[in-house]
Write a structure and sequence with these properties.
Layout (H helix, E strand, L loop, with lengths): L1 E4 L4 E4 L8 E5 L10 H19 L4 E7 L15 H9 L3 H18 L7 E4 L4 H13 L3 E4 L2 E4 L38 E6 L17 E3 L1 H13 L3 E7 L3 H16 L4 E7 L2 E3 L2 E2 L10 H6 L4 H9 L7 E2 L2 H19 L11 H16 L4 H13 L4 H15 L3 H15 L9 E6 L4 H19 L3 H13 L2 E6 L2 E6 L2
Parallel strand pairs: 3-4, 3-10, 4-5, 10-11, 12-14, 15-17
Antiparallel strand pairs: 1-2, 6-7, 7-8, 8-9, 12-13, 16-17
Helix pairs in contact: 2-3, 4-5, 4-6, 5-6, 8-9, 9-13, 10-11, 10-12, 11-12, 14-15
């Protein structure tokens, strides 16, 4: 498997420290509100990476944090804590907010077939770990006290910028435009390891520390949680590209200064989901959540497919039109799989299985090229082998893709079988032969077919012909059968 490593800016062959265990860490959500679908794009792609590693034969231990304290509204260590902001908004305690939105996050993950990581650790569980790391950083000369807070001193590093290039003079305080100067900092990119009561007096969660009652900075939690569960050597660290600086940059600074050696070998960053007006966020425009997609009639797995059709290192533009196109693609794929016969009496063609699997592995190993992995499913459908083999291979691929292809095809197959006898009954039958659309569109098509049948019965052939022509213009093709009409959707 080759992965693009943001730290080296190139694709590299993946070689874990321990061939028997891949240690993988992914930055989790700040649980002050629902996750929007832009956040969830990252978790979908991280899920694909974990499943691809397991599919390729690796044993994986994946750890994720839950940020329930310390993440300020600005990465410059200014503004109020996001958790406190959520608690004030809903007139609840911070812990009530954290519990509610943690549960909501994992419910969204369930709907999107995102596997729960092996370890999920709330930041508030590891205060003693952070304090120990900070004490060591102070002892080694990498951290200092100022204004009641403890800061990491980036000037002590040989290299601070890992993921982007900057001149060292940029480290001067206040150089970067738009960042409020913190007079306590020696250098503009110094960051807070521990806040005391000298700042944010209304902070809800505080703990005793050697430096006074306070709470940890945001960046320290990922280092502490990763080391607690995965030890001193990390194989893969994932997150959104917006976390590369300053969050992941600061993680590297504090972790490697504390450990005295390289900490993580591969950094995998997922790029943004944008709308036509720019980067998606909770504060801009319509708040796009999984629940909103469902309210509008979309299967959450259509959104998963939408993400897989693009590469994780490309910005992806969301629009309802683009999502509608994903609906059509998903439904057509399910219909093609449903046309395969699960009771095929032939034996599984192991040679075909192995050949097709190689193509799928090649796609995944090509820096997680999920668009090619989807193409590999279509290659299975076109391959000259029996249906039992095709269904087995597709089910195997779906262990990684997570699109419920076999289960959805089974449902579709039963629907088609149930509709088929209707044409033989005494009632007028409307049978959808192929193609799909959302429920509202289906209802509209079938109502038009009923109106056409009524017009024909009344010998109003002009109206009947017009309805047929209007439907054909929309890609709906009719075929009259005894006691009914069959139709197919070719949108």
């Amino acid at each position: 498997m080759k992965l693009y490593n943001t730290a080296t800016r190139q694709r590299e062959e993946f070689v874990p420290n321990d061939p028997n265990l891949v240690k993988m860490y992914t930055c989790g959500p700040t649980v002050y509100h629902y996750a929007h679908i832009g956040n969830l794009r990252s978790y979908i792609m991280e899920d694909i990476l974990e499943k691809a590693l397991r599919y390729s034969g690796y044993n994986v231990k994946r750890v994720m944090n839950i940020t329930d304290v310390g993440h300020l509204a600005s990465d410059a260590d200014t503004g109020e804590d996001k958790m406190l902001k959520g608690a004030k908004r809903e007139n609840k305690s911070v812990m009530e907010i954290a519990k509610f939105y943690t549960d909501a996050f994992f419910e969204d993950c369930r709907k999107l077939n995102i596997k729960r990581p092996d370890v999920v650790e709330p930041a508030t569980n590891c205060i003693a770990d952070y304090i120990h790391i900070i004490e060591t950083l102070i002892e080694k000369g990498y951290a200092y006290a100022a204004g009641g807070n403890i800061y990491f001193d980036v000037s002590k590093l040989k290299q601070y910028y890992i993921f982007n290039d900057h001149d060292e003079e940029d480290l001067a305080v206040g150089v970067r435009e738009g960042v409020e100067e913190d007079a306590n900092k020696r250098n503009k990119n110094d960051f807070v390891l521990w806040f005391t009561k000298s700042k944010f007096e209304d902070q809800a969660l505080k703990w005793d520390s050697p430096w006074g009652v306070g709470y940890p900075g945001w960046h320290i939690e990922c280092s502490g949680i990763s080391m607690k569960h995965l030890g001193e050597d990390l194989d893969i660290h994932c997150g959104g590209i917006d976390n590369a600086f300053p969050h992941h940059t600061n993680e590297i600074a504090q972790s490697e200064s504390y450990l005295g050696h390289k900490w993580c070998n591969y950094w995998v960053h997922i790029h943004h989901l944008n709308t036509n007006s720019g980067k998606m966020s909770k504060s801009k425009g319509e708040f796009l959540t999984v629940s909103l997609l469902e309210e509008k009639g979309y299967d959450p797995l259509v959104y998963r497919l939408f993400c897989l059709q693009s590469h994780y290192r490309k910005n992806l533009v969301f629009s309802w039109e683009n999502l509608d196109n994903a609906v059509i693609t998903y439904n057509k794929l399910i219909a093609k799989i449903a046309a395969l016969k699960p009771d095929d009496a032939d034996e599984i063609d192991t040679a075909a299985f192995d050949e097709l699997k190689v193509k799928f592995l090649d796609a995944l190993g090509n820096d997680l090229n999920t668009a090619l992995a989807i193409t590999a499913v279509y290659d299975v459908l076109k391959y000259k082998t029996n249906d039992k083999t095709k269904l087995t291979v597709i089910g195997d691929f779906d262990r990684v893709l997570g699109l419920d292809l076999i289960a959805k095809a089974d449902v579709k197959r039963r629907e088609v079988a149930a509709a088929a006898p209707a044409a033989q009954s005494g009632d007028y039958a409307i049978i959808r032969e192929s193609g799909d659309a959302d429920a509202a569109v289906i209802a509209e098509i079938e109502e038009a077919i009923k109106q056409r049948a009524a017009a024909k019965k009344a010998k109003d052939y002009a109206t009947a012909d017009k309805i047929r022509a209007d439907l054909a213009e929309k890609g709906v093709i009719l075929e009259d059968i005894p006691k009914g009409t069959k139709y197919r959707i070719e949108i």
